[in-house]
Amino acid sequence: MRGMFASAPGFEVLGEAAGGTEGVELALRLDPDVVLMDLRMPAGSGVEAIAELARRGARARVLVLTTYDTDSDTIPAIEAGATGYLLKDAPREELFAGVRAAAEGRTVLSPAVASRLVSAVRRPAAPADRALSAREREVLELVARGTSNRGIARELFISEATVKTHLTHLYAKLGVRDRAAAVAAAYERGILG
C-alpha cells in the first residue's frame, strides 16, 4: 500500500504504523488528511484506534481498508467515527478515489458494505417491548460463556425456574428455539460482543 500510494500523483505518505496504538500516536503527531486503518492489528484494534482518534480530536479522516466486511466489523468501525470503509481487494483507482473522497469529508463505502448497511437499515427494528431486559442480558451473557441453568441460578441468586423463564423470554424475543441459536443471534445483532 505504501509503495502504491507513494508512487501515485497527488499523494504523500507521511507514516506507517504496525498497530492501533502506534497508529493513533503517529496520526496525532503527523496530522495527515487521511488515515488508512486496518481493523485487526497487533497492539490495539482498528476500531479502538478510530474511537481514540475521535476522542482526542484528530483532524484526519479515517478510511478503513481491510479484508473484513461483516456487519460485526463494519458497523462498529463506522460508529467509532470512520469516514469510510473499503476492502483491500478494491482496484487501485477505487482506492485512490476513496482516499480523495475521504480527504474531502465524503463518506466512502465499498459496494458490498453499502449493500449490507442498506439491508440492515431496511430491516424492521424490534419493537421496544422486544428489547432484552437487563436480567435477560445477564442470563444471555452467562449462556454464551457455557454456564448451565444451575450455574446461572447460583451466580444471579435466582431459582432455576426463573432462569428457565428468562430463557423462554429470550428465545421469543430473539426468534430462536435454543441456547446456541440465542447466542448466535445475539452476536449477529450486536447484543453480545
Characterise this structure:
With 193 residues, the protein is of the alpha/beta class. Helix content is 54%, strand content 8%. The chain is built from 10 helices and 4 strands, in the order ααβαβαβαβααααα. It has helices spanning 2-6, 20-30, 46-55, 71-80, 92-103, 111-122, 134-144, 149-156, 160-174, 179-188, and strands spanning 34-37, 61-66, 84-87, 108-109. It has a 4-stranded parallel sheet. Strand 1 (34-37), helix 3 (46-55) and strand 2 (61-66) form a beta-alpha-beta unit. Helix 8 crosses helix 9. It is elongated and about 70 Å long.
Which structural class best describes the helix and strand composition? alpha/beta
Strand order of the largest sheet: 1-2-3-4
Let me know the number of strands: 4
Termini separation: 31 Å
**Multimeric organization:** single chain
Binned strand content? 5-15%
Shape: elongated
The description of the largest β-sheet is: 4 strands, parallel
* Helix and strand pattern: HHEHEHEHEHHHHH
Uncertain regions spanning at least 5 consecutive residues: none
Mean pLDDT: 88
Percent helix, as a range, is 40-55%
Number of H/I helices? 10
Our Rg estimate from Cα atoms comes to 21 Å
What characteristics describe this protein?
193 residues, alpha/beta, four-stranded parallel β-sheet, 10 helices, 54% helix
Summarize the structure.
With 193 residues, the chain is of the alpha/beta class.
Helices and strands in order, then pairings?
Blueprint: H1 2-6, H2 20-30, E1 34-37, H3 46-55, E2 61-66, H4 71-80, E3 84-87, H5 92-103, E4 108-109, H6 111-122, H7 134-144, H8 149-156, H9 160-174, H10 179-188
Parallel strand pairs: 1-2, 2-3, 3-4
Helix pairs in contact: 2-3, 7-9, 7-10, 8-9, 9-10
